[in-house]
Write a structure and sequence with these properties.
By secondary structure, the protein is mostly helical. The protein has helices at about 5-20, 25-35, 40-60, 95-130, 130-145, 150-160, 165-190, 195-200, 205-215, 220-240, 255-260, 270-295.
Length: about 300
């Protein structure tokens, strides 16, 4: 073997090692290793993936009309034909729960997305500019935080009207102050670092500093808060629908299904049992996964 032939494999090995040891890839592997150690978080993550797939694919696989009544089978219990039984209108509960799962998850995800984006923008502006801007914004956030989230959502729904879109708006609004305070605190800690001062000295614009240097460094608490808030958003949306202030029947939102079946709990408990279990699984999955993300992303947990 010539000297040139011996050098090439060594160069390839070095290139592979260099790629393998890149900071981003190393951080990602470290994050996954720590997350994998948390068994409950992994179970929660797999459960979330499974429920998302069911919500996306399930409605196309159900064979029963979720709105068409069939009074010949009303209150029928679970069977091979109707896995979750039939409700007081003879509608298949399994089909309605599958469709309702998608509606409830959509409300939870979209309200967290919209509220989170608004809260991130408000919090990062407040923390970066400080002084009067910070004082005005944070006092307004304190006013919103003075109201319990569900009461604020009820007040907004009573003004806007009960509908799926208005539930998303209402839940998004009470998500804003929570995200804003978390992002503000992280921004205050990050903007005083030396490399931020160096960027200012080099003449970098505020927008460049905020979105290219501060925001990427405060993503960890944002991701954790988002995963945990989705569970709260799902509970809030279901609660609003349960009391008649959210998604309206005959739309099969999980909270609305519970509301329709509460008068028949003693005679036909299956109508409320299964949507209740699905809500419980959703909230539990996001909560335990969020706890695992917090442990994996928290630098204090590194050994």
């Amino acid at each position: 073997m010539t000297a040139e032939e011996r050098v090439e494999p060594l160069d390839d090995d070095k290139r592979k090692k260099k790629k393998k040891d890149s900071p981003f890839k190393r951080s990602l592997k470290d994050f996954y290793r720590k997350l994998k150690k948390n068994k409950s978080a992994m179970v929660g993550g797999y459960l979330i993936i499974f429920l998302i797939l069911v919500a996306l694919i399930g409605p196309y696989l159900t064979q029963y009309d979720i709105r068409q009544p069939d009074y010949s089978i009303k209150f029928e219990g679970p069977s091979a034909e109707h896995w979750f039984g039939a409700d007081h209108h003879g509608r298949d509960v399994f089909s309605r729960v599958i469709h309702g799962l998608g509606i409830t998850m959509k409300i939870g995800l979209l309200s967290t997305l919209f509220g989170g984006l608004a809260g991130i923008l408000i919090g990062i502006i407040s923390g970066y500019y400080g002084r009067k801007v910070d004082a005005v914004i944070m006092r307004f956030m304190d006013v919103l935080l003075a109201f319990p989230g569900i009461l604020l959502a009820l007040a907004l729904i009573s003004i806007l009207g009960a509908s799926e879109e208005n539930v998303i708006i209402a839940v998004s609004i009470f998500a804003v102050p929570t995200f804003a305070r978390i992002v503000r605190g992280s921004t205050l800690a990050t903007k005083n670092l030396e490399y931020i001062d160096a960027m200012k000295a080099l003449g970098a614009s505020d927008i460049r500093i905020i979105f290219k240097h501060i925001l990427p460094n405060i993503l960890s608490p944002i991701i954790v808060q988002a995963s945990l808030f989705i569970a709260s958003a799902i509970l809030s949306a279901s609660g609003l629908s349960f009391i008649g202030m959210g998604v309206q029947p005959p739309s099969p939102e999980l909270g609305a299904i519970l509301s329709e079946g509460r008068d028949f709990m003693w005679d036909a408990g299956h109508i409320t049992l299964y949507p209740g279990l699905v809500i419980m699984l959703l909230v539990l999955a996001f909560n335990v996964f969020g706890d695992g993300l917090r442990d994996a992303l928290d630098p204090k947990m590194k050994k």
